[in-house]
# Entry
Amino acid sequence: MKKIKIGTRGSKLALWQANLVKERIEDNFKDIKCEIVPIKTTGDKFFDMRLFEQSDKGFFTKEIEEALIKGEIDIAVHSLKDLPTEIPLELEIGAITKREIPNDVLISKEKKILKDLPVGAKIGTSSLRRKCQILNFRNDLKIIDLRGNLDTRIRKLNTTDLDAIVIAYAGVKRLGFEDLISEIISFEIMLPAIGQGALGIEVRKGDEKIYNIIKNLNHKESFQAVSAERSFLRRMHGGCRIPIGAYGYINNNTLTLEGMISNLDGTKIIRRRIQGKIEEAELIGIKLAEEILNSGGKEILEDLKSQITNKKGVEAQKKIENKNFKSKEI
# Structure
């Protein structure tokens, strides 16, 4: 019997996702046994690190990819929204599973929807993308930084003075918390993160045996739609530190891609939509990015990067000052 080692993060959601892939492989190949290998990533070690402090390059994937390159695992299972658009040359995305609906959801203490929350209500999220789109919809709400695994964030809603939190529908459904949902937020209000709701199975290039095992897990339409989104993000030079969202979907052999970029307070959002042939998914992503950049997105992007760089510098200086102050106290 052949054994396949599946690398994943160790959170409840990540393990659920890895076990889904494990079950699918073992159902398709009765002579294969899969082993789940939890790997702690930088993102798991530093949950108190804010978005603008992240390196933005494999924050939740780097250590898993290193294990894959070394042959310590055979495949890696990622939430695609965590996987950078530029991955190591030795690796590739071998399959993308059928996508769960990619919407974000609101979970509120009183089951109120976003438009009915009281003035000044406190909303928890660590995502700049969610923050700016919420503020664009209702600028009276207060956004509170909220970090941690999905189950941790849900628990904090009940143990703090937050009125609501915004998280991805896919994770809520996969962990069985659907009954907590107050509202599935429409795409008109909030575009999702790139690849949200989809799982990416990463493999070593040229490993035909492994590719032949996981290829049946690939959902063609999800692969094409997400490829367009990732191409859009790559051309926008964005990541989790930049408020960028996109959603691609296929209908009647036509791929529609909608994308956005916003400033940090949500007062200026540039949002566009284009369509094209599904065979040209990556080109569609590039074209949409060019249209947004040429419509004012470039100026927003440059301003965002300047603000984030300055903020990182201020935070770094504060850490140095705090460290020196503690040393003096000692």
